[in-house]
Design a protein that fits this description.
By secondary structure, the protein is an all-alpha fold. It is 69% helix and 0% strand.
Length: 287
Amino acid sequence: MTSLPPRAGRHCHSPLNSLHATVYFSPDLAKELAGIGIEDPSAAYFAGRAAAMGAVGPGVVAATFYNFRHDLIARHLPAVWRTASPEAVLQARLRAVDSTLRRLLGEEAVESDEMAEAARLALRATEGCTRHARPLYAAHADLPVPEQPHLAFWHATTLLREHRGDGHLAALLELGLDPLEALVSHTATGKGMAPRWVLTTRGWQRSDWDAAAERLRERGLLDADGELTAAGVALRADLEDRTDRLDLAPYELLGEQGVARLTELAKGFLVTAALAGGFPADLVGKG
């Protein structure tokens, strides 16, 4: 039995994950990676997120990222490592984190006591994470913790994001949602990435999307209008509940007060980042 309020870990993870993601939408990351020779946006994303695992190929990234088309990944990996080493990519990514957070949050927030507190709390939570069967988390857990609080905070959000993400993939497999079915059903909740963004960034074609939607309709999870049925809503709720259970330990370790405080701090930073243009306006939606 958990001592935390229902879904407290999920509610904490949500703003942490979104804050983490600002770097992958940031022009600063593109600039830093272009500076070491990686100019293609897809290559930059794959390299930036996968570098902690070393000079991996498309199979490893397809397995750990889950919802990208293998053909798209294979256009860029392992070739990207001939342009820049994983170590160089990680250094460039950290520079982009620094400039992105300073630009979106402002110098005062970056240097604040609240940022230092958020870093301490988030790092404490990561002490409850486990490496087994969590490859993206485990790879990042082997990286050193940056000294500056805002960079340490982003590092901790990376660990918490990938820890939950690795567990989420296990839940997707158990519930029988393949990579594109996972995306289509998430978009149908109204909280997922808009189809245009999925097709642009994940390498799928519209015909792939339509075929996945048809498979979901055949399972009774999606209706003729592309909306989730009652069974589809229940499956997505079950998916998130399973993910919560697999991701409980970090937040249990932090405790109810710590989770509440970290959630409060993360939400405050996230609102500031969003108002500063940290995300594309049309990122989320069904259309």
